[in-house]
Amino acid sequence: MFHFKYSLIIFFFNLCLIYGQSYRFTYNYKFISDTLKKDSIISENMILDINSERSIYLSMKKNISDSTMLEDSKKGLMTMPDSNISTRYIIKKKYPNLATSLITDEFSTSYKFIVSDERPMDWKLTSEKITIGEYDCQKAEIDFAGRHWVAWFTEKIPFHDGPYKFRNLPGLIVRIEDSKRYHIFQLKNVKKINNESIYDDKLNKGTKIRNLDRQEFIKFYKAYRKDPAKEFKQKAMSGDIYYESEEKRNEHMRLIEKLREERVKKDNNNIEIDLLKN
Question: Do 90 and 13 belong to one domain?
């Protein structure tokens, strides 16, 4: 097993070499959200921005959409988010210990959730090596979040980081996929950026925050999937949403409930498949 504590000194040495520099790593993320439609593959470009303090991982479309909305809001304009964003969460890792959090506003219009994840990354390093693009890579495997993952990392890029929550290998993850190939991440581009280019969630500064640990989030997530329209129905019934009549309100509530239940039903292949277990 490879443990992060044994590589901490090496990490700080590498960090000194690149201190003051920020990098953007672009990954292509291919995944199947509905196992009943395995030929329907979603492809989305994701970015992993890294500086000496943290890394931020999110959809490139979300990065662009949020930046546009922020600039428009400064001009007094209201712009809707890009409806084509498939991956709406953000993953933040704080350096040097890579403390990891998932940030999402997918489940509520009133709250943003920040979910800490302290699970260790117990990698099994193998001796197998291949070349991916310009990088000499070594194979590593891990069981994480209900799936078996195979990763290829390169020590030529001295970051103990990677897409999604994956971290704590002796170099950057170039490619990683689960054993069924339902979720595949492939590094496509590397470039230096300035610190101002790193994503900073200034768009929703006034949004209420709910900080949860993983067990608290699992409890919430299971309740949400059973009744994904619960918050909306509560707002509709309390009068927070205006309707011309009770009939119109009930009709709209039934429509929203149906749409959200259908969306949850199709979303049956979460990257963390253990979240869907009873």
Answer: yes
